[in-house]
Write a structure and sequence with these properties.
Blueprint lengths: L3 E2 L1 H17 L7 E4 L5 H11 L4 E4 L6 H11 L3 E3 L2 H7 L18 E2 L7 E4 L5 H15 L6 E4 L6 H12 L3 E4 L5 H11 L3 E4 L1 H13 L11 E4 L6 H11 L4 E6 L4 E6 H6 L3 E5 L4 E4 L5 E4 L7 E2 L3 H7 E4 L2 E4 L4 E5 L2 E6 L5 E3 L2 E3 L1 H8 L5 E11 L3 E10 L3 H11 L8 E4 L17
Parallel strand pairs: 2-3, 2-4, 7-8, 7-9, 9-10, 10-11, 24-25
Antiparallel strand pairs: 1-8, 5-6, 6-16, 11-12, 12-13, 13-20, 14-15, 15-18, 17-18, 19-20, 21-22, 23-24
Helix pairs in contact: 1-2, 7-8, 8-9
């Protein structure tokens, strides 16, 4: 059963973390890499660093050395926390004073068509922008001192970390499940009576399947907010979530590591099936002539890609509503409501985890005997999509699987491999992933 961390306990821990980081020589603007499993103390470290101006860099602890070392070389951190002892040491510092609000956003890494992960960097926030960042989340989601946020998703992802941070900063409490298991989740809800939760559709699917299999029930009456995102939600799962948690409780939102686009309470989806909601306050979502979605955001919600000015320039443009960015998704806006027509074809969403074919292909491209390779997603009833690969050449499937295990975290490893004579390509050489 996860322990409950209160805002008061967290405040004390954050001050000690900040003291330990400063005593170790870290200063505002420096980076601290976190490559450890999620826990309540993980959130304390993120907040203690960010409220000192030191930039947390959360990484999936399942990354291979091949993946992790490339990111570490890129960010040149002041320190790397990669085991429980390192995390505990930060909690043993001498307490220092903190800013009221985080002075930066955590720098999460995302990949893309280039195959190289990119750090989403917000820069240092002014006091006014730091306060606005916290205020917008609090106003939208209603974080309050009486909240207990149950963290069921990996805490190194941006959304669950954002919900946990927002709850603590509002004076509420959090509890972090070490991993999502339906039975443990049902027990935690019964014992802790949480009020809020972020999840992905795969969590809901697994929960409902377990409840049916064991003829069990869930008393979800304590929840005031259940927000899901990260992948398309099948309509039967969505409607059962409405029935289980309450139409007035369930929300969906659409966003990315780079920033948030929309939010949609269940009644609005029921009235307009298929929508992902309206633009969040302070933002304007629009579609260009090609159907690509762009989001104009306030100054404090803007970003660059770390050490990648060309990639940054490619995703920003000036609009009548101000600077706007895109992540390449296609959709439309009708009467102020946003509809997603398709996610960009270079993205596979498996269990709410973004997997980019180019990154997987880059990790395998030097396998002996490999002539050509393409990675793509196929529909999966449990995970939404599964990662698949087709290849050309004399290389064995065993060789490709071994290389993937060495270089790629588990969610990125292809589940199936198929040898083919050639890959379907356009006249310009681009792989036709939709045909695969």
């Amino acid at each position: 059963m996860p322990d409950v961390l209160t805002a008061a306990e967290s405040e004390s821990a954050q001050r000690r973390v900040a003291g330990a980081l400063l005593a170790g020589g870290a200063r505002a603007g420096d980076r601290v890499v976190l490559s450890v499993p999620g826990s309540a103390d993980y959130v304390n470290v993120v907040l203690g660093a960010a409220r000192t101006g030191i930039v947390p860099v959360p990484l999936d602890p399942r990354l291979t050395a091949y993946e992790r070392d490339a990111i570490i070389r890129d960010v040149q951190p002041a320190t790397v926390i990669d085991d429980a002892a390192g995390l505990a040491a930060l909690l043993g510092g001498d307490a220092v004073e903190l800013d009221d609000w985080p002075r930066c956003r955590p720098m999460h890494f995302t990949s893309g068509t280039t195959g190289k992960p990119k750090g989403v960097w917000s820069g240092a926030l002014s006091p006014e922008h730091a306060a606005a960042l916290v205020s917008e989340e609090r106003d939208l989601w209603g974080f309050a001192p009486g909240d207990l946020d149950l963290v069921v998703s990996p805490i190194y992802h941006s959304a669950p970390l954002r919900f946990a941070m927002g709850t603590l900063l509002a004076g509420g409490s959090i509890a972090v499940l070490p991993a999502f298991e339906p039975q443990a989740f049902v027990q935690a809800v019964a014992d802790l009576r949480p009020t809020s939760m972020f999840c992905v559709p795969a969590h809901l699917q697994r929960l409902f399947a377990w409840l049916d299999e064991h003829d069990a029930t869930l008393d979800a009456s304590s929840f005031r907010l259940v927000a899901h995102a990260g992948a398309p939600c099948p309509e039967p799962v969505r409607r059962r979530a409405h029935d289980t948690f309450g139409v007035d409780v369930v929300w969906e939102f659409y966003g990315s590591t780079e920033g948030q686009f929309t939010a949609c309470p269940a009644p609005e989806w029921i009235a307009r099936p298929g929508t992902v909601g309206r633009s969040r306050p302070g933002r304007v979502v629009s579609a260009d002539d090609d159907g690509q979605l762009w989001c104009a955001v306030p100054e404090w919600a803007r970003f660059t890609y770390w050490n990648a000015p060309e990639k940054t320039q490619a995703v920003w443009k000036e609009t009548p509503d101000g600077p706007a960015f895109t992540v390449g998704d296609l959709g439309r806006v009708e009467d102020g409501y946003v509809y997603l027509d398709s996610r960009r074809e270079d993205l596979i969403i498996s269990g709410g985890v973004n997997v980019y074919p180019a990154e997987v292909e880059a990790a395998l491209e030097d396998a002996d005997g490999l002539v050509d390779l393409a990675v793509f997603g196929r529909d999966d009833p449990d995970w939404g999509q599964r990662v698949c690969a087709v290849y050309v050449g004399d290389v064995t499937e065993e060789t490709l699987r071994a290389l993937a295990a060495e270089r790629l975290a588990p969610p990125k490893r292809p589940k199936t491999y198929e040898r083919v004579a050639s890959l379907p390509r356009t006249a310009t050489g681009k792989v036709r992933r939709t045909e695969l």
